[in-house]
Amino acid sequence: MTKPKTARLCAAFAMAFVLAACGQNESQTGASNAPGATPGVVVFNHGNAAEPASLDPHHAQGTWEDRIIGDLLMGLTTENAKGEPIPGAAERWETSADGLTWTFHLRDSQWSDGEPVNADDFVFAWRHILDPKTASPYAYYLNLIKNG
């Protein structure tokens, strides 16, 4: 992953932090209706049990963090109301006959800066969570992947 992509990820986390800080406004219908609000800006108030310690998905540990991160980022798959896997950033996937190789077909998605999301972004994220320097508490989830 190139440094500009790393910068975009850092910017996304910084923006997520800024958005999370926008917890109160005087209007229940959004900042766009509040006196003196910036035109075109809408604030989404999200009831959260606690302040997030991190918005980095590789360091977050609480459900209050997961709620916000889940609203900001999407994995290859997500889940429906029953907790079953459904397409997320991948519109579909295939599994080899032996179950050892999974191929994900990404839908057209873009970062908030307009740059396209691509497979390298997911490779970077998986390598980052597995890097011992990251010290992610959930890196072991990837132990089932060869070389994970």
Q: What is the secondary structure topology, with strand pairs?
A:
Blueprint: H1 3-21, H2 63-72, E1 77-79, E2 85-87, E3 90-95, E4 102-106, H3 119-130
Supply the key terms.
two-stranded antiparallel sheet, globular, 4 strands, 3 helices, Dipeptide-binding Protein, domain 1, alpha+beta, 28% helix, 148 residues
Walkthrough of the structure:
This protein has 148 residues and is α+β, with helices and mostly antiparallel strands. The chain has one domain (3-72, 85-144): Dipeptide-binding Protein, domain 1 (Alpha-Beta Complex), CATH 3.90.76. Helix content is 28%, strand content 11%. It has 3 helices and 4 strands. It has helices at 3-21, 63-72, 119-130, and strands at 77-79, 85-87, 90-95, 102-106. The strands form 2 sheets. It has a two-stranded antiparallel ribbon. Strand 3 and strand 4 (102-106) form a beta hairpin. It is globular. The two termini are 18 Å apart. Mean pLDDT is 80; it is low at 13-32.
Q: How far is it from the N-terminal to the C-terminal residue, by CA?
A: 18 Å
CATH-defined fold name: Dipeptide-binding Protein, domain 1
Largest sheet: 2 strands, antiparallel
Helix content: 25-40%
- Which overall shape is indicated by the principal axes computed on the Cα atoms? globular
Weakly predicted, low-confidence segments: 13-32
Rg, rounded, reads 18 Å
The total of beta strands comes to 4
> What is the CATH top level name?
Alpha Beta
Q: Topology as H/E string?
A: HHEEEEH
Structural class: alpha+beta
> What is the residue-averaged pLDDT?
80
- The proportion of residues in beta strands is 5-15%
Trace the largest sheet across and list its strands: 1-2
Q: Could you say what the CATH architecture is?
A: Alpha-Beta Complex
